[in-house]
From TrEMBL:
This protein's name: TPM domain-containing protein
Organism: Bradyrhizobium ontarionense
Residue ranges of every copy of the TPM domain listed in the record: 19-141
InterPro entries membership: TPM_dom
Database matches in PANTHER family: BLL7265 PROTEIN, UPF0603 PROTEIN YGCG
Length: 165
Protein backbone atom coordinates (compact mmCIF):
# COMPACT_ATOMS: atom_id res chain seq x y z
CA UNK A 1 0.00 0.00 0.00
CA UNK A 2 1.62 3.25 -1.13
CA UNK A 3 1.74 6.13 1.32
CA UNK A 4 1.20 8.63 -1.52
CA UNK A 5 -2.01 6.90 -2.55
CA UNK A 6 -3.29 6.72 1.02
CA UNK A 7 -2.52 10.39 1.53
CA UNK A 8 -4.20 11.37 -1.72
CA UNK A 9 -7.37 9.49 -0.73
CA UNK A 10 -7.42 10.74 2.86
CA UNK A 11 -6.84 14.35 1.82
CA UNK A 12 -9.20 14.24 -1.13
CA UNK A 13 -12.27 15.85 0.34
CA UNK A 14 -15.81 15.49 -0.91
CA UNK A 15 -15.97 19.24 -1.51
CA UNK A 16 -13.68 18.77 -4.52
CA UNK A 17 -16.03 16.16 -5.95
CA UNK A 18 -19.00 18.48 -5.42
CA UNK A 19 -17.12 21.40 -6.95
CA UNK A 20 -16.36 19.47 -10.14
CA UNK A 21 -19.60 17.52 -10.41
CA UNK A 22 -22.16 20.17 -9.52
CA UNK A 23 -25.89 19.45 -9.71
CA UNK A 24 -25.97 21.14 -13.15
CA UNK A 25 -23.13 18.97 -14.45
CA UNK A 26 -24.78 15.83 -13.08
CA UNK A 27 -28.07 16.84 -14.74
CA UNK A 28 -26.30 17.27 -18.09
CA UNK A 29 -24.64 13.86 -17.69
CA UNK A 30 -28.01 12.29 -16.93
CA UNK A 31 -29.51 13.92 -20.01
CA UNK A 32 -26.60 12.71 -22.14
CA UNK A 33 -27.23 9.15 -20.94
CA UNK A 34 -30.98 9.48 -21.66
CA UNK A 35 -30.23 10.83 -25.14
CA UNK A 36 -27.65 8.12 -25.82
CA UNK A 37 -30.01 5.33 -24.83
CA UNK A 38 -32.39 6.45 -27.60
CA UNK A 39 -29.68 5.37 -30.08
CA UNK A 40 -29.20 1.83 -28.76
CA UNK A 41 -30.80 -0.94 -26.70
CA UNK A 42 -27.97 -1.03 -24.15
CA UNK A 43 -27.88 0.25 -20.60
CA UNK A 44 -25.28 2.78 -19.46
CA UNK A 45 -24.41 3.96 -15.94
CA UNK A 46 -21.91 6.60 -14.82
CA UNK A 47 -20.49 6.50 -11.29
CA UNK A 48 -17.99 8.92 -9.78
CA UNK A 49 -16.31 8.32 -6.45
CA UNK A 50 -14.24 11.04 -4.84
CA UNK A 51 -11.87 8.82 -2.87
CA UNK A 52 -11.73 5.45 -1.23
CA UNK A 53 -12.12 5.23 2.51
CA UNK A 54 -12.44 2.53 5.11
CA UNK A 55 -11.82 -1.09 4.09
CA UNK A 56 -11.36 -0.44 0.34
CA UNK A 57 -8.58 2.04 1.11
CA UNK A 58 -6.85 -0.05 3.77
CA UNK A 59 -7.00 -3.13 1.51
CA UNK A 60 -5.43 -0.97 -1.21
CA UNK A 61 -8.29 -1.85 -3.53
CA UNK A 62 -7.42 -1.01 -7.11
CA UNK A 63 -9.81 1.10 -9.19
CA UNK A 64 -10.65 -1.89 -11.42
CA UNK A 65 -11.59 -4.00 -8.40
CA UNK A 66 -13.69 -1.17 -6.99
CA UNK A 67 -15.44 -0.71 -10.34
CA UNK A 68 -16.30 -4.42 -10.37
CA UNK A 69 -17.81 -4.07 -6.89
CA UNK A 70 -19.87 -1.07 -8.00
CA UNK A 71 -20.97 -2.89 -11.18
CA UNK A 72 -22.20 -5.77 -9.05
CA UNK A 73 -23.81 -3.64 -6.32
CA UNK A 74 -25.74 -1.57 -8.86
CA UNK A 75 -26.81 -4.79 -10.63
CA UNK A 76 -25.66 -3.52 -14.01
CA UNK A 77 -25.10 -7.14 -14.98
CA UNK A 78 -28.84 -7.81 -14.57
CA UNK A 79 -30.10 -6.65 -17.98
CA UNK A 80 -32.15 -8.70 -20.42
CA UNK A 81 -29.50 -8.69 -23.16
CA UNK A 82 -26.36 -8.65 -20.96
CA UNK A 83 -25.48 -5.27 -22.40
CA UNK A 84 -25.04 -3.06 -19.35
CA UNK A 85 -21.95 -0.84 -19.21
CA UNK A 86 -20.49 1.03 -16.26
CA UNK A 87 -18.22 4.05 -16.64
CA UNK A 88 -16.53 4.43 -13.25
CA UNK A 89 -14.34 7.39 -12.27
CA UNK A 90 -12.22 7.29 -9.11
CA UNK A 91 -11.43 10.98 -8.84
CA UNK A 92 -8.56 10.74 -6.32
CA UNK A 93 -6.67 8.46 -8.71
CA UNK A 94 -8.02 10.15 -11.86
CA UNK A 95 -8.64 6.64 -13.09
CA UNK A 96 -11.49 5.57 -15.35
CA UNK A 97 -12.65 1.99 -15.62
CA UNK A 98 -15.26 0.62 -17.97
CA UNK A 99 -16.94 -2.58 -16.90
CA UNK A 100 -19.13 -4.15 -19.56
CA UNK A 101 -21.48 -7.07 -19.18
CA UNK A 102 -20.54 -10.24 -21.03
CA UNK A 103 -22.87 -9.70 -24.00
CA UNK A 104 -21.42 -6.38 -25.10
CA UNK A 105 -17.89 -7.08 -23.85
CA UNK A 106 -17.62 -10.15 -26.10
CA UNK A 107 -18.39 -7.94 -29.10
CA UNK A 108 -16.33 -4.85 -28.25
CA UNK A 109 -13.33 -6.22 -26.35
CA UNK A 110 -10.99 -4.93 -23.68
CA UNK A 111 -8.74 -2.94 -26.03
CA UNK A 112 -11.57 -0.67 -27.20
CA UNK A 113 -12.84 -0.10 -23.66
CA UNK A 114 -9.31 0.81 -22.56
CA UNK A 115 -8.95 3.27 -25.45
CA UNK A 116 -12.12 5.04 -24.32
CA UNK A 117 -10.80 5.17 -20.74
CA UNK A 118 -7.49 6.64 -21.89
CA UNK A 119 -9.23 9.34 -23.93
CA UNK A 120 -11.35 10.29 -20.91
CA UNK A 121 -8.30 10.35 -18.63
CA UNK A 122 -6.52 12.65 -21.09
CA UNK A 123 -9.40 15.13 -20.79
CA UNK A 124 -9.33 14.85 -16.98
CA UNK A 125 -5.60 15.63 -16.88
CA UNK A 126 -6.49 18.91 -18.61
CA UNK A 127 -9.17 19.61 -16.00
CA UNK A 128 -12.00 19.02 -18.48
CA UNK A 129 -14.07 16.59 -16.43
CA UNK A 130 -17.48 17.24 -17.93
CA UNK A 131 -16.12 17.12 -21.47
CA UNK A 132 -14.27 13.87 -20.69
CA UNK A 133 -17.40 12.23 -19.29
CA UNK A 134 -19.50 13.36 -22.26
CA UNK A 135 -16.86 12.06 -24.66
CA UNK A 136 -16.86 8.72 -22.83
CA UNK A 137 -20.66 8.45 -22.91
CA UNK A 138 -20.66 9.17 -26.64
CA UNK A 139 -17.94 6.59 -27.33
CA UNK A 140 -19.59 3.85 -25.26
CA UNK A 141 -22.94 4.66 -26.85
CA UNK A 142 -21.39 4.34 -30.28
CA UNK A 143 -20.24 0.83 -29.44
CA UNK A 144 -23.63 -0.11 -28.00
CA UNK A 145 -25.40 1.25 -31.09
CA UNK A 146 -23.26 -0.93 -33.38
CA UNK A 147 -24.30 -4.15 -31.68
CA UNK A 148 -27.61 -3.31 -30.00
CA UNK A 149 -29.66 -1.02 -32.23
CA UNK A 150 -32.78 0.49 -30.68
CA UNK A 151 -36.10 -1.35 -30.81
CA UNK A 152 -39.59 0.04 -30.27
CA UNK A 153 -40.10 -2.41 -27.40
CA UNK A 154 -36.98 -1.33 -25.48
CA UNK A 155 -37.44 -0.41 -21.85
CA UNK A 156 -35.04 1.53 -19.67
CA UNK A 157 -33.85 -1.18 -17.28
CA UNK A 158 -31.44 0.95 -15.23
CA UNK A 159 -31.63 4.51 -13.88
CA UNK A 160 -29.92 7.16 -15.99
CA UNK A 161 -28.93 9.45 -13.12
CA UNK A 162 -25.22 9.49 -12.31
CA UNK A 163 -24.22 7.97 -8.99
CA UNK A 164 -21.93 9.95 -6.70
CA UNK A 165 -20.20 7.90 -4.01
Amino acid sequence: MGIKRIGRHLLHHHWKLKRIFTPDVLARIEQAIKDSERTHAGQLRFVVEGALDGPPLWRNQLPRERALDVFSNLRIWDTAHNNGVLIYLLLADRDVEIIADRGIHAKVGAARWEAICQAMEAEFRQGRFEQGVMQGIAAVSGELAKYYPPHASDINELPDAPVVL
